[in-house]
Amino acid sequence: MECAAKGLVAEPCAGDGAHRRCGICGAVAYCSRAHQILHWRVHREECERLAKQMSRVDMLSQFPFTFSMEPPAQNHAFPTRCFFLQSMKLHQKGLWKPECTCGPEVASLEDLSNAAEWNLKSSLCPCTEPENHVPASLSSWEGYYHWRFLPLDSPVAVLLHWVKSVPLTLYHCLQLSHFQSSRSDLDTLCIHYLVTDFATFITTVFEGPEKELLQLAVFGELRALFPGVHVHIDLVGPTVPKSRDGEVVSIPRYAHCSDESCCCKSGSEDLTSSPVTLKLWKGFYHERYRDIMKVFLTVTFLLNSNPHLIFAPNAGVAAYPSWMPTIEIIRGAGIPAIFTDFCEEAAHLASCCISSITGQPLRIPIQVNPFRQPISVDNSALFLPCYSNCFVFGM
């Protein structure tokens, strides 16, 4: 950690790092007692809030999963994420391939035969219709695994959150917006999915048709979460490639398992649910809102209808001024909107920005997302609590 007073006081920091923590919150560190005293006039405004956040840190690492691995040796050539995939026998395979960081990018149409593959046995992945309807109380990874009859050593939660589709987080946000209690006999569920430069969904998934087919199949799980409903997502962001603007992607079935005899391979599975479709829009939401709504009203023929939810994952509201006109649009439209951010402090700063624009408190207060990423796997750490897409709040 860097000294919290660095750059804010005239005296330079001591040379051996910041090892002195605030004794109240423990969230900030200092290089010396002198810097801690000088910084108190700034830190005292946030200390109590940070202390409350720090008291919830242990909760962020509470997960039911039993999948694990031995950490790689220090001289191991594999990046840590690839080492994890290899330990699960998933390295460079199917849906997992774009997550590998050790090899070349997916660049050949030859890979499309495995594009929608979990590369797991049918008992370890959700490759067919669920046996039961989604329970009304579904609010945890443990509940999801129980509903889908998955053992806790199945790694599917990692992929369901590694890719930016986050279907379980999207489902949770719809629950928070009271969608489930008011859906009645809904035929189509319409969601506006807002992507920013901070949430690099497009640049990591939509660079080519191979990545699109390899990872968008995970959106198919929305068919199980909303049975009998056509889920349509308008995905809007400035990083959508110009060549993909206006493209519609259909996801008609679940990602396949590796069992050749499974009904997901034979085509005999029960496909009673409607397909999931995504339409890509290049630009900021406030720039494309009129175009999106014009198409929406033309298709639905409902002059007074609105989408059911606006969803913005890892939004970074406090970091990007471009959110201001978008929030104004959302406020005027009256559409329920839910944002996520990478940590609770970022969510707090974002909520302050939103309230300053709207003049109203948040309708949905800041809370932990129960379907947050189960593990953090990168080149520097293993199995640390991951704060990505962790906190949700809404207007």
Automatic annotation (TrEMBL):
It comes from the Eukaryota. SUPFAM superfamilies: HIT/MYND zinc finger-like. Keywords: Metal-binding, Zinc, Zinc-finger. InterPro entries: Mss51-like_C, Znf_MYND. Residues 10-47 form the MYND-type domain. GO terms for molecular function: zinc ion binding. It holds the Pfam family zf-MYND. This is MYND-type domain-containing protein. It comes from Eragrostis curvula (weeping love grass).
